[in-house]
Amino acid sequence: MIEIKISTEYIKLDQFLKFAGLVKTGGEAKHLIKDGKVLVNGVVETSRGKKLRVNDEVEFEGKKFKIV
């Protein structure tokens, strides 16, 4: 599991995908999330505005990330 440190209270899911370098654009993130390709805490998440906080886990393309 890869730990991603944030310095704010939360980060939105689409912003997280960009921040972690998993996508190049917000538009790309939007489509991947809408298509159900991203899991948050083990559940498919289709809302790009989902707020991720410390200890949340994101899974994308077989890789797992933890917000710290």
Describe this structure in words.
This protein is α+β, with helices and mostly antiparallel strands and 68 residues long. It has a single domain, classed as Roll (Structural Genomics Hypothetical 15.5 Kd Protein In mrcA-pckA Intergenic Region, Chain A). The protein contains two helices and seven strands, in the order ββααβββββ. The protein has helices at residues 13-19, 26-34; strands at 2-4, 11-12, 38-40, 43-44, 51-52, 57-60, 63-67. The strands form two sheets. The chain has a five-stranded mixed beta sheet with strand order 1-7-6-3-4, with no helix packed on it. A two-stranded antiparallel sheet has the order 2-5. β6 (57-60) and β7 (63-67) form a beta hairpin. α1 packs across α2. The longest helix has 9 residues, at 26-34. The protein is globular. The termini are close together. The model has no long low-confidence stretch (mean pLDDT 93).
The CATH architecture classification is Roll
Rg is 10 Å
Q: Which structural category do the helix and sheet elements fall into?
A: alpha+beta
Strand order of the largest sheet: 1-7-6-3-4
What overall geometry do the principal axes of the alpha carbons give?
A: globular
Residue runs with pLDDT of under 50 for 5 or more positions: none
Put simply, the count of helices is: 2
